[in-house]
Amino acid sequence: MIYSKGQMEDEITKAMIQWEKEYKGRGPSEARTDIVRNMVIVTLKGVLSLAEQHLARDEEGMALIKELGRQLVEQGRPGLEEIIKHITGAEVVSLHTDVSTKTGERVFVFVLNTDIPLE
């Protein structure tokens, strides 16, 4: 199926929410996807559990949350890359992600092997 840029953004958002629910057991409170040239930027808000929010009160807890998130994303990376390839038709060249232990927001940046044409 061929999607417009807006449809791709919507489909990626839905798929990322579903991935979070299936892979991590809970989904974000808000999600948004933006496609800019050869990048897909996904912002997920409200990704920290109550326990993680409590852990984030000190530096050691923050480091634990970030490391756990990094490992989970690395293990789930093939599925994430497949989501992006299926919807955009482009290969993922690199994936960058981080979670803010202050705001509970996670950002994914998928760099693709080609620009995504505008509508």
Distance between the termini: 14 Å
Give the total of domains: 1
- Helix coverage percent: 40-55%
The largest β sheet comes out as: 4 strands, antiparallel
Point out poorly predicted stretches.
none
Give the overall silhouette: elongated
Average pLDDT number: 94
Q: Please, how many helices?
A: 3
Topology:
Blueprint: H1 5-24, E1 30-36, E2 39-45, H2 50-55, H3 59-88, E3 92-99, E4 105-112
Antiparallel strand pairs: 1-2, 2-4, 3-4
Helix pairs in contact: 1-3
Commentary on this structure:
The structure is a single chain. The protein is α+β, with helices and mostly antiparallel strands. The protein has one domain (5-112). Helix content is 47%, strand content 25%. The protein has three helices and four strands, in the order H-E-E-H-H-E-E. The chain has helices at residues 5-24, 50-55, 59-88, and strands at 30-36, 39-45, 92-99, 105-112. It has a four-stranded antiparallel beta sheet, covered by helices on one side. Helix 1 (5-24) crosses helix 3. The protein is elongated and about 45 Å long. The model has no long low-confidence stretch (mean pLDDT 94).
